[in-house]
Amino acid sequence: MTDPDLADRTYMVPLTVEALERVLLVDRPDAILPTMGGQTAL
């Protein structure tokens, strides 16, 4: 999900409450799509 054609912004942060709160406060996104695991996770 690092392709700029697929997302407005890409964050490489841990999936912790604190990290997600920072993203929500700064960008006010409509949605969050957390992914992990590389090709296997697709």
Element order: H for helix, E for strand: H
What's the helix count? 1
The stretches of 5 or more residues where confidence is low (pLDDT under 50) are: none
Shape: globular
Report the span from N to C terminus. 10 Å
Kindly state the percentage of residues in helix. Answer: 25-40%
Q: Largest sheet, if any?
A: none
What value does the Rg take, in angstroms?
Answer: 11 Å
Mean pLDDT: 78
How many strand segments? 0
Strand content: under 5%
Overall structural class, as computed from helix and strand content, comes to: mainly alpha
Descriptive overview:
The structure is a single chain. The protein is mainly alpha-helical. The protein has a domain of 28 residues. Helix content is 26%, strand content 0%. The chain has one helix and no strands. The longest helix has 11 residues. The termini are close together. The relative contact order is 0.17. The mean pLDDT is 78.
What's this, in brief?
It is an enzyme of class 6 (ligase). With 42 residues, the chain is mostly helical.
